[in-house]
Amino acid sequence: MQEPSFTVGIEEEYLLVDLGSGDLVVDPPDELLSDCERMTGGRVSPEFLKSQIEVGTRKCDGIKQAAAEILELRHCVAQAAGRFGLAPIAASTHPIAAWEVQKHTDKERYNILARDMEAVARRLVICGMHVHVGLDDDDLRLDLLGQVSYFLPHLLALSTSSPFWRGEKTGLMSYRLAVFDELPRTGLPEHFESYGEFQRHLKIIVDAGVVEDATKLWWDVRPSARFPTLELRIPDVCTHARDGIAVAAMYTCLLRMLWRLKRGNQRWRRYSNMLIRENRWRAQRYGIDQGLIDFGKGVIVPYEELLEELIALLRDDAQALECLEELEWAREILRRKTSAHRQLEIYEAALAEGADKREALRRVVAFLTRETLVGTEGQPHIAL
């Protein structure tokens, strides 16, 4: 059984903020995108809202190459944005921004989305991270799709960066997911026995005119419509770049582990979406704080224990893929806490010092602008 390529591609979405006020920029200059395209060799693209920008690595031979490209792309976007008094933040929601005043990008795909979804689309002031892993066989992609769903809550919990919405604490570590789940065809993927079965189901809704193609399937993980990859979509975008790389490394190693089981005529047990949704909610609500359910034992297990089990399970795969250091960085996420935790800590500390809510949230934005560029070649001037 030939080993898949396990190539890696990472896409990250950023919000653009004003360096003076910290506010989300509703209508950034067109020249910004042109400058970014020139500086990155075309590895950036507009997103649904004008206040967003997306970067994407090339097809990389491994996690280390993808990590280097992500740092380069963050640096390029920051340099281009800084010339206009702006900065990117890698956070899945902006702490203060109101969705009602945002403008969507004038492209046919986005115009259709805005028309078809109305307010549901207009609320999408959210950013995520997508990880593509090369699996060259169609049926293998669908087989692993059904198995890797079990681990989606584990990956989400490590990435949370969206505890605020419109100036309020939401009580969720990933409020982005609550916003995104208002769209149709989101959430956990369906189970399919083969690529052919998946194609038959897709054909029904395409022929009915409901969707144009598989790019309108917005599941937490999906077979990519553009590349021979299995695309992870559940994570928040991580403010600290190395946190995102750890999530990407874990996902890639999970797919190799599942392929390795298949090579030995074994498989990971499939659990119902009903059960996995419970862990998905726990990760969305609590992140790494309150543990996840071990379905075999029927008990909630602390995330620290689950992580150590995962690292032990994936060690051989991480060594084979030369990303053990990146995988083990997940321990550092637990030590330092996720972006969501740190945003909340900064907010509460500012209030304790006597700041009002607006000023406390501005301090959160200032943190996000700095943390987004940790590890890159330069930092913007933060006036907040």
Topology:
Blueprint: E1 8-18, H1 30-40, E2 44-46, E3 52-56, H2 63-82, E4 86-89, H3 108-117, H4 119-122, E5 129-134, H5 138-148, H6 152-159, E6 164-165, E7 168-169, H7 175-180, E8 186-187, H8 195-207, E9 218-219, E10 221-223, E11 229-232, H9 241-263, H10 273-286, E12 292-294, E13 299-301, H11 303-320, H12 324-336, H13 339-352, H14 357-372
Parallel strand pairs: 8-9
Antiparallel strand pairs: 1-3, 1-4, 1-5, 2-3, 5-11, 6-7, 10-11, 12-13
H and E string: EHEEHEHHEHHEEHEHEEEHHEEHHHH
The total count of strands amounts to: 13
Describe the sheet with the most strands: 7 strands, antiparallel
**What class would the helix/strand composition place it in?**
alpha+beta
Task: Classify the beta-strand content into a percent band.
Answer: 5-15%
Average residue-wise pLDDT: 94
Helix content: 40-55%
Outline: globular
Uncertain stretches of 5 or more adjacent residues: 380-384
> What gap, in angstroms, lies between the N and C termini?
56 Å
Number of helices: 14
Radius of gyration: 20 Å
Tell me what the structure shows:
This protein has 384 residues and is α+β, with helices and mostly antiparallel strands. The protein is 47% helix and 13% strand. It contains 14 helices and 13 strands. The N and C termini lie far apart (56 Å). Residues 380-384 have low confidence and may be disordered.
